[in-house]
Design brief:
This protein is mainly alpha-helical. Helices cover 56% and strands 2% of the residues. The chain has 10 helices and 2 strands, in the order H-H-H-H-E-E-H-H-H-H-H-H. Helix 2 packs antiparallel against helix 3. The longest helix is centred in the last third of the chain and has 31 residues. The protein is elongated, with a radius of gyration of 58 Å. 9% of the residues are buried.
Length: 265
């Protein structure tokens, strides 16, 4: 009898459960476009499903052993789900629901980086360490900061001015050898200059004794001129006097005007 009662109870339970399932509304599948949903409650449910799906995918992509191709595909799927979530948030606002863009708090991944819900393409978890992606997140090295005048003078001491260069015992011998070399070159140049000066002074100086000059021609000079200047001036005056005499002797058309003309005559 007990066995039959259990069977009857089991059948009754199944019948009751079937009646309850008939009263429950049939769950709709999430449409591909959010604009196809006209019920606010369904839109809220679809948004919750997407949020759970994104959370699950972000947790899964933290595993770096999945392989590069699997990680890239999973990262693409997360970005696609995030874009779809933004569409459902806008649809909920259109249906008179709350604005999840303002009310939603920041969503962070396992590394503490913010997940941008909508917007540019994002990388999550192990995808941030993929080849070609790691360089995108490396911050450029900061430019060297210019030192102030005080910082520059802070490192200046006696060694900067060369006051300690003689301590090592290397500089002094080098300076002595170079000094002796320069002194020898200077002495050689001085001796050459003296020999040239002595050779030039050994020549007989130009005097007026070798030049036929009358006292009348010397009377016009003050005595401050050198013999060369006096000789040049007397020659010029003699040429001028000769030209005057030639103008009186020759016809006017054939009168020489220059020293070259005089030499031709």
């Amino acid at each position: 009898m007990a066995r039959n009662e259990e069977k009857a109870q089991m059948v009754l339970n199944r019948w009751v459960q079937a009646k309850l399932d008939e009263k429950k509304p049939i769950k709709k599948k999430r449409p591909a476009l959010s604009s196809e949903c006209d019920n606010l409650q369904d839109a809220e449910r679809f948004r919750r499903e997407l949020t759970y799906q994104i959370s699950k995918q972000v947790s899964e992509i933290q595993n770096a052993s999945l392989g590069e191709h699997k990680i890239r595909d999973l990262n693409d799927a997360i970005n696609k789900s995030i874009r779809e979530l933004s569409h459902w948030n806008r649809r909920i606002i259109e249906l008179g629901g709350p604005n999840y863009f303002k009310a939603a708090s920041k969503v962070l991944d396992a590394n503490g980086n913010e997940i941008r819900l909508g917007g540019k393409y994002s990388y999550f978890g192990a995808a941030r360490n993929l080849p070609g992606v790691r360089e995108l997140f490396e911050e450029p090295a900061p430019a060297p900061k210019a030192k102030t005048r005080g910082e520059l003078y802070r490192g200046i001491d006696a060694s900067y001015y060369g006051l300690h260069d003689e301590i090592d015992g290397v500089l002094l011998p080098m300076e002595s050898a170079k000094e002796a070399e320069l002194a020898a070159e200077a002495q050689e140049a001085f001796e050459l200059q003296q020999s040239m000066r002595n050779s030039s002074s050994s020549k007989a100086p130009i005097t007026l004794e070798d030049f036929d000059v009358s006292q009348a021609e010397l009377a016009v000079f003050d005595g401050d001129e050198t013999p060369e200047q006096i000789q040049k001036s007397i020659l010029e005056s003699r040429k001028a006097a000769l030209l005057r005499e030639l103008r009186l002797l020759l016809p006017e058309t054939a009168t020489p005007t220059t020293a070259s003309d005089i030499s031709e005559i």
